[in-house]
Amino acid sequence: MKAALMTHRGAVRGENQDAVFVSGIVRTSDMDVPEFCDLDPMSHPILLAVIDGMGGHEGGALAARIVGETLAEKADKNDLFGARTDIDEDEQTLRQLLTEAARRMKTEALANSLLSEMGAAMSGVLLREQSALAFNCGDCRVYRFSDGCLERVTRDHSIVQVLFEREEITEEEMRRHPRKNVITSSISAVSGNEFELYVRELPLREGDSFLLCSDGVWEALPSRKLTELLAQDIPLLDAACALFDALLAANCRDNVSFILWRVGR
After folding, report:
1. pLDDT tens digits for 33-71?
2. Domain that holds residue 222
3. Which member of 46, 81, 83, 121 has the greatest number of CB atoms within 10 A?
4. How many domains does the chain have?
């Protein structure tokens, strides 16, 4: 199984404050093209994450890097996700990792007051041999494309998510709403362990595709366009390149980061 990962400042922003993480690999700088990596969940659980840093020019990029490096240092090197008894155990381990990232942010903020508002939204998947645990905090997302249909499998922690659940706006209107960037939870210098984490376990089915992405991706492209791109029967790297090209063509106004992977191919 392979994954394609990509992070870029987008068509408008002057700096990339996102990061992507795949099984020990952390990418924070602009990439020219998507990168391939191998996934082997039969040998050990694999953690994938997209991280969207926040906190202005001083803190956003650092916050994203801190989360990525914490995952690499604590999860992979210490093999935290070994044999599992239940989903609650994995969720608890994820919370411990992200609380450690928040602690590191607080240390940076205590040394530099300009970093006091630093934080990060994120989405991810813990991939095991027969299942995937999708999770998120903030408005980064995980999508599954299966049998020709695109499904968002995570729940945003945001103002527009609340409005959507009240049926005051549609999912498509979430992309254009004036308060679309107001999130209600993040991993931050002040959050400690007080953050919301949505988790959902999914079976792995042959041929399904998964897309992890920052809000810059789903705000730039409507669901119908994402569906069209993921439905293409082309090699994974070509699909990732097509997605990135579509984001630039849409004049994406935010940083854009994603991880695309398929089950069984």
Report:
1. 999 988 876 667 889 999 999 977 679 999 999 999 999
2. 2-157+186-262
3. 121
4. 1
